[in-house]
């Protein structure tokens, strides 16, 4: 390769080999190129330091040699409809007979023997003085879906063979073109007569009952991932401790069967001081995570002791079965929580596992094993909390199924987990340290975004046979009829920012999209869980078509469904069928907030709009979009002349969505109750009370509320009802 003008030819080639994309176009069409310094920092995070051209050339050569040394790749993902599946086999030239054996996940084996030199040759290379050939080893064309193990001799090489249907599951009603509707809610915002200051899984079950009675097919949720009990104010569900565990703060404590058997818990619950604390947490307009955590853990610890000493045999057996079913994924994640709790009690700065004594930073160390043995009681407590949360979430899912909801619960998978959390400790090789996921600038975030989340290492992910990704998908499809993949473009590439740099200095890192989509499709079919991909922001050309081919629903937000130049809103029949249509999302203003420009006010207040010119541009754009929305609603015959109020606009906008061609249309509970404040302002942390604002109305008052009932009736009239109410 000839040197580039700035002398970075080897660096550029190495970066490309490692998946760092050289350029991208931002939301305004401007071509942005990855800088040499950013490439070096990203490569260093990937374990391939390249401080100069000589080091880059050496790294490239080492990568090439390493790939040729392996007889088989670590994994291959095959489509079940592939008429001639093959894997690449690299052996010394003249290797003679090759025997292969494929152990099927379901049991049984396939195998055979072939002459190596009769296989189709792909490439050859000289390695350590000998000639190595890559040839195509054919596999049977009728392999069942699943995770199979291939072994080949000579060389005693092995690899994982994943066979996928290639397309995600859809309920029969959606396959037949039936359009359904539902309600989405942030669980922590829910209020009820018996809440302890935060929405819980019991409230979720109540919402299921209310929505099902009105014909809803789906209940959409925020991520239910585990947070940090030792640091409860770190409340973002999109920056969790672990996406493999559930949030224990959503446990409905009073629903536990141990409560009637636990005298100390009943006495505590009856005490004036404890009841005062509950009432105070319930009365606050914002979730007081510290107060909620203290209340619930104090009671849950008492109930756990009762479970251990008095609990009935059926519950003990169910707990043991849960532990066996979830296995090592559950155990190692809960062990992290116990360790973090232990060190955080010593000093707050020790909460981050990267500050723990060296022996405890390695999950496989003797120190960690000894801790697990000596603190088995505390480890059991954390596992028990997960069992309780899982059972209560499962009860809500069962209620949805019992009422015949076509989809049921629709969960949300965050794009990453906190760098100080369980996922980075338990699976250190699979994530990139010193890199944070974000997004380049867009209309709503002109400075770009840094989400502070470490991404998967694409090569390490493949080397482990995608184990981490598979575990993640399975955990979040549990008790779900639908799963939203936050920032689904991450299946193709993620915008990665070196630590200490601004979003403008980031670059995209590519991922093996065909493999990841194949795994997603396999798990979707097995779990009977449809998939929605949140495809907002900078969407590469052809990406949505690839998602549609895999039966992954697009995520269409009313505010964004416009013609690019004129701002004219697309007609309802222009929405794609394979999509979920919504008014807004957790990162956007409510409909009232959007109409009144509250989000722009907040961004100006928090300095998120860097210039007065940007502020004026945003306000002018919003004025145009308001006018365009009224035009669209009137053209559809949903709004009369004159100046409508926000409730009238909301009814018309939701009727507009209900008429859309999209198979799913979902109303936010926030909009059904005409909330004005959004739950999250992107690019802020402590400046704004993100993830804390509660609903203005308790669940008991939803039935009979004019706004709620009117929108539910509107969707039901347009899309019909599902289930038995």
Overview of the molecule:
It is a single chain. The protein has 725 residues and is of the alpha/beta class. Helices cover 38% and strands 18% of the residues. The protein contains 22 helices and 24 strands. Strands 11-12-15-18-21-22-23-24 form an eight-stranded parallel β-barrel, surrounded by seven helices. A five-stranded mixed β-sheet has the order 3-10-9-5-6. A hairpin with a 3-residue loop joins strand 9 and strand 10 (157-164). Helix 9 (313-346) packs across helix 11. The radius of gyration is 27 Å and the shape is globular. The protein starts with 8 loop residues before the first helix and ends in a 6-residue tail after the last helix.
Radius of gyration: 27 Å
Q: What structural category do the secondary elements indicate?
A: alpha/beta
Low-confidence stretches: 1-5
CA(first)-CA(last) distance: 67 Å
Number of separate strands: 24
Assess the beta-strand content as a share of residues: 15-25%
Number of helices: 22
The largest sheet has its strands arranged as 11-12-15-18-21-22-23-24
Morphology: globular
Q: Summarize the main sheet.
A: 8 strands, parallel, barrel
In summary, what is this structure?
The protein is an alpha/beta fold. The model is unreliable at 1-5 (pLDDT under 50).
Element layout with pairings:
Layout: H1 9-17, E1 23-25, E2 31-33, H2 36-45, H3 53-69, E3 75-79, E4 86-92, E5 97-103, E6 109-115, E7 120-127, E8 130-138, E9 146-153, E10 157-164, H4 172-175, E11 180-185, H5 201-213, E12 218-221, E13 225-226, E14 242-246, H6 263-270, H7 272-283, H8 289-310, H9 313-346, H10 366-374, H11 376-402, E15 408-413, H12 422-426, E16 435-439, E17 449-453, H13 458-463, H14 467-477, E18 482-485, E19 493-498, E20 507-510, H15 513-527, E21 530-533, H16 543-549, E22 553-557, E23 579-582, H17 591-596, H18 598-605, H19 612-635, H20 646-658, E24 664-668, H21 669-672, H22 706-719
Parallel strand pairs: 3-10, 11-12, 11-24, 12-15, 15-18, 18-21, 21-22, 22-23, 23-24
Antiparallel strand pairs: 1-2, 4-8, 5-6, 5-9, 7-8, 9-10, 13-14, 16-17, 16-19, 19-20
């Amino acid at each position: 390769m000839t040197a580039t003008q700035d002398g970075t030819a080897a660096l550029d080639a190495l970066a490309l080999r490692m998946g760092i994309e050289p350029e991208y176009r931002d939301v305004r069409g401007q071509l942005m190129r990855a800088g040499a310094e950013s490439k070096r920092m990203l490569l260093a995070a990937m374990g391939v330091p390249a401080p100069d051209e000589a080091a880059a050339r050496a790294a490239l050569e080492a990568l090439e040699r390493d790939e040729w040394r392996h007889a088989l790749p670590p994994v291959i993902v095959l489509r079940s409809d592939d008429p001639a599946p093959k894997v690449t086999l690299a052996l010394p030239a003249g290797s003679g007979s090759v025997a292969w054996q494929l152990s099927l996940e379901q049991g049984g084996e396939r195998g055979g023997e072939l002459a190596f030199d009769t296989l189709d040759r792909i490439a050859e290379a000289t390695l350590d003085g000998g000639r190595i050939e890559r040839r195509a080893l054919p596999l049977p064309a009728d392999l069942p879906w699943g995770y199979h193990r291939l072994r080949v001799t000579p060389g005693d090489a092995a690899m994982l063979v994943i066979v996928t249907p290639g397309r995600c599951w859809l309920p029969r009603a959606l396959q037949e073109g039936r359009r359904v509707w539902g309600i989405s809610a942030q669980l922590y915002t829910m209020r009820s007569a018996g809440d302890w200051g935060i929405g819980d899984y019991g409230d979720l079950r109540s919402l299921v009952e209310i929505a099902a009675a009105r014909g809803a097919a789906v209940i959409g949720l925020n991520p239910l991932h585990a947070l940090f009990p030792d640091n409860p104010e770190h409340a973002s569900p999109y920056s969790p401790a672990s996406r493999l565990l559930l949030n224990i703060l959503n446990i409905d404590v009073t629903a536990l069967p141990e409560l009637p058997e636990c005298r100390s818990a009943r006495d505590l619950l009856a005490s004036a001081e404890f009841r005062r604390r509950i009432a105070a947490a319930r009365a606050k307009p914002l979730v007081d995570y510290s107060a909620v955590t203290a209340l619930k853990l104090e009671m849950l610890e008492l109930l756990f002791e009762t479970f251990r000493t008095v609990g009935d045999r059926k519950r003990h057996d169910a707990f043991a079965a849960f532990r066996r079913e979830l296995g090592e994924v559950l155990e190692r994640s809960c062990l992290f929580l116990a360790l973090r709790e232990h060190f955080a009690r010593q000093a707050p700065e020790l909460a981050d596992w990267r500050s723990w004594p060296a022996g405890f930073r390695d999950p496989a160390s003797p120190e960690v094993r000894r801790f697990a043995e000596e603190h088995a009681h505390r480890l059991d407590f954390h596992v028990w909390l997960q069992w309780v949360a899982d059972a209560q979430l499962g009860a809500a899912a069962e209620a949805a199924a019992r009422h015949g909801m076509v989809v049921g619960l629709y969960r949300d998978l965050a794009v990453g987990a906190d760098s100080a959390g369980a996922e980075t400790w338990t699976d250190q090789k699979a994530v990139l340290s010193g890199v944070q996921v974000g997004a380049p600038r867009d209309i709503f975030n002109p400075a770009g975004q840094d989400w502070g989340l470490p991404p998967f290492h694409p090569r390490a992910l493949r080397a482990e046979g995608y184990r981490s990704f598979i575990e993640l998908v399975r955990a979040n499809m549990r008790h779900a009829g639908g799963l939203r993949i936050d920032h689904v473009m991450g299946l193709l590439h993620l915008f990665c920012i070196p630590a200490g740099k601004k979003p403008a200095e980031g670059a995209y890192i590519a991922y093996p999209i065909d493999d990841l989509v194949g795994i997603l499709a396999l798990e979707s079919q097995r779990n009977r869980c449809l998939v929605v991909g949140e495809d907002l922001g900078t969407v590469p050309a052809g990406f949505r078509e690839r998602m549609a081919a895999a039966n992954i629903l697009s995520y269409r937000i009313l505010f964004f469904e416009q013609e690019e130049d004129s701002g004219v809103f697309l007609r309802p029949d222009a929405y794609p069928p394979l999509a979920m249509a919504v008014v807004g999302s957790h990162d956007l203003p409510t409909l009232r907030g959007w109409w009144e420009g509250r989000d722009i006010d907040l961004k100006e207040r928090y300095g998120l709009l860097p210039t007065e010119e940007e502020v004026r541009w945003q306000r002018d754009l919003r004025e145009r979009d308001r006018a365009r929305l009224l035009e669209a609603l009137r053209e559809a015959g949903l709004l009369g002349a004159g100046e409508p109020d926000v409730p009238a606009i909301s009814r018309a906008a939701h009727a507009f969505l209900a008429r859309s061609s999209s198979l799913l249309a979902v109303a936010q509970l926030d909009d059904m109750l005409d909330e004005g404040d959004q739950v999250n302002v992107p690019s802020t942390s402590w400046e704004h009370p993100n993830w804390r604002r509660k609903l203005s109305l308790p669940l008991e008052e939803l039935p009979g509320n004019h706004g709620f009932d009117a929108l539910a009736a509107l969707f039901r009239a347009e899309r019909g009802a599902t289930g038995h109410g």
